[in-house]
Design goal:
- By secondary structure, the chain is an alpha+beta fold.
- It has 3 domains: 128 residues, Sandwich (Immunoglobulin-like); 193 residues, no CATH class; 147 residues, 3-Layer(aba) Sandwich (Glutaredoxin), CATH 3.40.30.
- 43% of the residues lie in helices and 17% in strands.
- It is built from 19 helices and 19 strands.
- The strands form 5 sheets. Strands 4, 5, 8, 9, 11 and 12 form a 6-stranded antiparallel sheet that branches. Strands 2, 3, 6, 7 and 10 form a 5-stranded antiparallel sheet that branches. Strands 14-16-15-19 form a 4-stranded mixed sheet, with helices on both faces.
- Strand 8 and strand 9 form a beta hairpin.
- It is globular.
- The relative contact order is 0.12.
Length: 646
């Protein structure tokens, strides 16, 4: 059975279509009657020949124009009224059925009752469907409504810390430019991913076939080398170009990439995709692209010259997607929080590794004789990748579970699943577990048995992670399983393993304790799905000399920038940046991501900041610092700066 890999475009070529211009122009305002009673008014104008459906019709699933908001403290008081009243038309879109619509200019009024104090602003959504008898489009827009006499959320005043001077901390120690991973490191990781992709059945057999094509079609060796190098360059270029749309996305707001990598539903989608890929790689069915996509690229590859070579490269990229897509998907989500250039660097590394053998074998065609022949070993590689994809799938599900607080994959459950996958891979490699295309009595090579033993050894390594013992901290895997605090044993699984339970998502409380106990504040900008954050917590913070400092000398507060839990209605607000742009602060993560970027001009995690209770910066902030000695030196410097500032 074959499946169409329509998700190809999500991994390689995200399509950005221009949105249909809305035929509706509108403004929203409010009128105060008393402290608990307001009227919301929407004044709207439709383009000529357009209408918007006024009422919902259940039997045709038509939704009428309506307004809504996300604040349980504000309730509608009566029905939505319109001026002028609706007009009935014979609608050709719905077989000349008589339907009520709004046309031209009209106003909508909705009385509301406010429980408690009215907020300073509220995001109003206007939704429905519009038509001009030829087009039928949804209307889904929102605007900020400002309430007369409304109270500004206390949280709104906490976004900016007045005393922060990034250029002039009390002490110059720290690293202003340090980030999660260097571009060269990410390029190398992408390169390794490309090397793995080369060993898959979708790519490896293409090497001798393609190189032989260039060699036989060229009039001389020089032309064969030129064509091979050009072919390799185009493979590299295609993967680099695939990252360009993410540079465009990155201009929206600084934390957009963190939002991509930690979006719960995107991670659930990747979980489902990786499960499908794994089942396919096990041999139960084959994933292929729609024939038209590869066919059109392949047809143009016969043109000849530079354009023909380009389309040959594009054909390779497309037809190999069923093997490379899962690696690229991991690269996309794994580097998204680092920014667009990190993604470009990873894609460049991947493209370089994939392109290199085609260029080298074209230059030295005699090397083809030493190239291993395609055979059963490729099927073994593919099935090993299937087990790896199965394990990675649960990492994506874990990301979603953590940021949404579903409680599905506690640390021990996650490790237990990986334990079963490791045992399953070991049984396959030893020949005890038969998968499609395996046959009884086949000879198991020594290398497979060695890999099988390593798989079983890894399973043994995972076993302590199922317990609440001091050995449950699997430092080798830091960042992949959920944190130690996210345990079926509750807080028992973090005792004696480093930092004691500390303040979470409450900067105001940290300021109060800092002033009361005369200790500096250490802000830990972190994320539930942040791999490097877990590495710091489980490999660096657990060092005795560092854990004692964090527990005794600082007020440690962790602010989760990817926490999708909604703020209480009274604490939601719209934040206005210095350039006039607005952002809706609706979740805990929205608040702390904006807090980080506005005060410290960085959007990567982890980021560590040392402040006085008044908000004065004591040192330069630092990011991921895996060297425990350097992190200790930075902490000591912060304590010295705090003492000198008193």
């Amino acid at each position: 059975m074959k499946q169409n890999a329509v998700f190809f475009f999500l991994f390689l070529f995200p399509l950005f279509c221009a949105a249909q211009e809305s035929p509706l122009q509108w403004e929203v305002s409010s009128q105060k009657h008393n402290d608990s009673s307001y009227t919301i008014t929407i004044n709207a104008t439709l383009f000529p020949k357009w209408h918007i459906y006024a009422d919902s019709v259940a039997d045709i699933e038509l939704e009428g124009l309506h307004i809504s908001w996300d604040n349980d403290n504000i309730q509608k008081n009566g029905k939505l009224t319109a001026t002028p009243k609706v007009t009935d038309i014979q609608d050709p879109v719905f077989e000349n059925r008589t339907l009520p619509v709004y046309t031209g200019r009209f106003s909508l009024s909705q009385k509301i009752h406010v429980a408690g104090t009215a907020p300073a602003s509220l995001k109003i959504a206007l939704q429905g469907f519009a038509s001009n008898n030829e087009e039928f489009i949804p209307v889904d827009e929102s605007k900020t409504l400002h309430f007369e006499g409304g109270t500004v959320s206390a949280a709104a005043g906490q976004i900016r810390i007045p005393g922060v001077d990034l250029k002039n901390p009390v002490s110059p120690c720290g690293d202003e430019t340090q980030s999660g991973q260097g571009l060269l490191t990410i390029f190398f990781l992408g390169f390794v991913g490309g090397l793995i992709a080369l060993l898959t059945p979708c790519v490896f057999p293409m090497i001798p076939v393609t190189v032989s094509f260039f060699t036989n079609k060229a009039s001389n060796k020089k032309q064969a080398i030129r064509n091979g190098v050009t072919y390799g360059f185009f493979i590299f270029l295609i993967y680099v170009l695939a990252s360009i749309p993410f540079h465009i996305i990155g201009n929206v707001q600084p934390e957009i990439f963190n939002n991509i990598s930690t979006n719960a539903w995107l991670n659930v989608f990747f979980f489902a995709i990786f499960i499908v890929f794994a089942i396919s790689f096990f041999g139960y069915f084959e994933i292929t692209l729609p024939a038209g996509i590869a066919g059109k690229a392949d047809a143009k590859s016969n043109i000849g010259s530079i354009s023909g070579i380009f389309f040959m490269a594009l054909t390779l990229v497309i037809v190999s997607f069923s093997c490379t897509g899962v690696i690229l998907g991991t690269l996309l989500v794994g580097t998204a929080s680092e920014g667009a250039w990190s993604l470009t660097s990873g894609m460049a590394g991947f493209g370089t590794a994939l392109a290199l053998p085609f260029a080298l074998f074209a230059m030295f065609p005699n090397w083809l004789k030493s190239l291993p022949k395609s055979g059963g070993w490729l099927d073994t590689v593919k099935k090993i990748l299937a087990f790896a994809e199965l394990a990675l799938a649960f990492k994506f599900l874990s990301n979603a579970d953590l940021v949404e607080h579903w409680g599905l994959l506690k640390r021990e459950i996650f490790i237990g699943i990986w334990l079963l996958i490791s045992i399953g891979m070991g049984c396959y490699l030893m020949g005890w577990l038969k998968l499609p295309h395996d046959h009884k009595g086949q000879k198991i090579p020594a290398i497979r048995k060695v890999l099988g033993v390593l798989s079983f050894a890894f399973a043994v390594y995972l076993i302590p992670g199922l317990t609440s013992s001091p050995y449950a901290n699997l430092k080798f895997l830091s960042g992949f399983p959920p944190p130690l605090s996210y345990s079926i044993y509750g807080t028992a699984n973090v005792e004696g393993k480093g930092v004691e339970p500390h303040i979470t998502n409450d900067f105001e409380k940290a300021k109060q304790l800092s002033a009361l106990q005369n200790k500096p504040i250490l802000i830990d900008f972190t994320g539930w799905a942040c791999v490097n954050c877990r590495k710091m917590e489980e490999q660096v913070w657990t060092e005795p000399e560092i854990s004692s400092l964090l527990n005794e000398k600082f007020i440690l507060v962790s602010l989760y920038v990817d926490d999708r839990k909604k703020l209480p209605p009274a604490e939601r607000f719209t934040y206005t940046f210095a350039d006039g742009k607005e952002k809706d602060i609706e979740t805990i993560g929205d608040q702390w991501a904006t807090f980080q970027t506005e005060n410290f001009r960085k959007s990567t995690q982890p980021l560590y900041v040392i402040l006085t209770p008044e908000g004065k910066l004591l040192t330069h902030p630092v990011g991921y610092t895996p060297d425990a000695k350097k992190f200790r030196e930075w902490l000591d410097c912060g304590l010295e700066a705090y003492a000198s500032n008193e």
